[in-house]
Design goal:
Blueprint (H helix, E strand, L loop, with lengths): L1 H5 L20 H11 L14 H7 L27 E10 L5 E8 L10 E2 L2 E3 L7 H13 L6 E6 L3 E2 L5 E9 L14 E8 L9 E8 L2 E12 L2 E6 H15 L26
Parallel strand pairs: 1-7
Antiparallel strand pairs: 1-2, 1-4, 2-3, 2-8, 5-7, 6-7, 9-10, 10-11
Length: about 280
């Protein structure tokens, strides 16, 4: 896995992801931005829906539980039944007062109909008019926590993840140009709290636990990270934890010291819009 992270290949970026002259940040963040602009995610089985061979090769396999990368979790694909809706989340990084690299997170409102009270990254479903995934992620971040898109320098996107509800989620990495200029203004209908956590935490074994689960006779792990800040405790798990494990592995160019244990199935033949994972 580490060879993928170190194989940085130049790639063209859409207009909203073209780098400005400066991140307005430290030399460390400037170097990180340059490193991440060169990152190219591994090919996804959904990159070309017209490739019948890929469709046939994917037949009979299923998507993983929350938090595993799409390229590692092929799913039974019937073009007439399964076209996952697209979403994007923002992995907004900045340098903390102690020099550590930190990521902005939210705790979802307890009044939401799905994933209420859970920790998540700012983001949401793609809407008509969004130019690209970076546009989706920054638009949603502004709506949810009041983060001005002009404060975020989008540097790269990671491979898509498939959520528990079979939503195709694209992680977008951005660097906060001026952390002092960002004054969190959470939308109470969506967000209960805004906080930040050290990114490196997600490739360490501290404060981590895992739950082994089984689906269709195959075992896999869901990772949980317990984090406390300003006398408040948060649990970061599932899709959000999986995305941050991947992001931290790429940023720090080393794999986590723990086993991720992705499932591998060859039994489910069809998936439709009503499918949901345990």
């Amino acid at each position: 896995m580490i060879s993928i992270f170190r194989r940085l290949i130049t790639t063209s970026l859409p207009p909203s992801m073209q780098p400005p002259n400066s991140c307005g940040s430290s030399q460390r963040l400037l170097a990180l931005a340059q490193q991440l602009r060169l990152y190219k995610p591994p090919p996804s089985s959904w990159d070309d829906d017209s490739e019948e061979q890929r469709i046939e090769e994917s037949a009979g396999k299923v998507v993983s539980q929350v938090g595993f990368a799409e390229s590692n979790t092929p799913i039974a694909k019937d073009p007439e039944k399964f076209r996952p809706k697209r979403a994007a989340v923002l992995i907004c990084l900045f340098e903390g007062d102690n020099g550590d690299l930190r990521v902005i997170l939210t705790k979802r409102s307890s009044g939401l109909s799905s994933h209420s009270g859970e920790v998540s990254l700012p983001g949401g479903k793609t809407e008509e008019g969004d130019k690209d995934d970076g546009d989706t992620a920054t638009r949603e971040a502004k709506e949810e926590i009041g983060l001005d898109p002009s404060l975020v320098n989008i540097v790269t996107v990671l491979e898509p993840f498939l959520s528990k509800h079979l939503l195709r989620v694209v992680p977008v990495i951005g660097i906060l140009k001026d952390k002092e200029a960002f004054k969190p203004a959470p939308n109470p209908a969506e967000v209960e709290a805004v906080f930040d956590a050290p990114l490196e935490m997600f490739i360490k074994d501290e404060n981590r636990r895992a739950d082994e689960r089984e689906w269709l006779g195959n075992k896999y792990l869901i990772h949980f990270f317990d984090y406390e800040t300003k006398n408040k405790k948060y649990m970061i798990w599932g899709l959000t934890a999986g995305i941050l494990i991947r992001a931290a592995s790429i940023v720090y160019q080393r794999p986590p010291p723990f086993v991720e244990q992705n499932p591998s199935h060859n039994v489910l033949r069809t998936v439709d819009k009503h499918s949901i994972l345990p």
